[in-house]
Each structure stands twice: as structure tokens, then as C-alpha cells.
């Protein structure tokens, strides 16, 4: 059964270790893709959101430089549970 593509047109980058959610980055990325999101390996101006777990490194720095919104694991879990991005 296909889920509503509520994240279509959004690009996520995952960095750091996702310890709280108990998911690997691959699993989290796959879950985002099911909702219509793109998942990229690198941060650019086209990145919609960076999901940063602990030990996030250069991708976090780059996202901050580019003004890309940074989400934590709690926000990621909310997105996966509801299919909706939290209002900034």
C-alpha cells in the first residue's frame, strides 16, 4: 500500500548517528523515501532539511552555513509518524 507522498519535493540529508530512533541512516532514508522525499548524501542549497544525530560533523556545519533547517531525531520521528514536516 502506497503512503500519501506528503514529503514530495523535499530533500533530506541524514548525518550523525541516529541512536534514539534505533534506525540506521539507511532505514531512516528509506522511510522518508516511502513518503515521497528525496534523500541525498550531501548538503547543498537544494537541501530542504538536514537531520542531525549525535556526532554530526561537516554536513551540519555546511547546512548552518547555507541556512538549511536542521532537525533532530525527535523531529525525524514526528515526520515519519505523521508524514508532516514540523512548522519552522
Description:
Strand 1, helix 1 (25-34) and strand 2 (38-40) form a beta-alpha-beta unit. The protein is globular, with a radius of gyration of 12 Å. Helices cover 33% and strands 16% of the residues. With 88 residues, it is of the alpha/beta class.
How does the SSE layout of this entry go?
Elements: E1 11-15, H1 25-34, E2 38-40, E3 49-52, H2 58-66, E4 70-71, H3 73-82
Parallel strand pairs: 1-2, 1-3, 3-4
Contiguous uncertain segments of 5+ residues:
none
Beta strand count? 4
Globular, elongated, flat, extended or rod-shaped: what is the shape?
globular
Radius of gyration: 12 Å
> What is the strand content?
15-25%
Number of helices: 3
Overall pLDDT level? 92
- Cα(first) to Cα(last) distance is 30 Å
Class based on secondary structure composition and strand pairing: alpha/beta
The largest sheet is: 4 strands, parallel
Which key terms come to mind for this protein?
single chain; about 90 residues; alpha/beta; four-stranded parallel β-sheet; 3 helices; about 15% strand
Can you summarize this structure?
This protein has helices spanning 25-34, 58-66, 73-82, and strands spanning 11-15, 38-40, 49-52, 70-71. It is an alpha/beta fold and 88 residues long.
Amino acid at each position: 500500500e502506497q503512503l500519501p507522498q506528503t514529503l514530495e519535493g523535499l530533500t533530506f540529508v541524514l548525518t550523525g548517528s541516529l541512536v534514539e530512533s534505533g534506525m540506521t541512516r539507511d532505514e531512516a532514508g528509506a522511510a522518508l523515501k516511502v513518503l515521497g522525499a528525496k534523500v541525498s548524501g550531501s548538503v547543498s542549497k537544494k537541501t530542504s532539511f538536514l537531520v542531525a544525530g549525535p556526532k554530526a560533523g561537516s554536513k551540519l556545519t555546511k547546512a548552518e552555513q547555507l541556512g538549511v533547517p536542521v532537525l533532530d531525531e525527535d523531529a525525524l520521528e514526528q515526520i515519519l509518524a505523521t508524514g508532516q514536516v514540523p512548522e519552522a
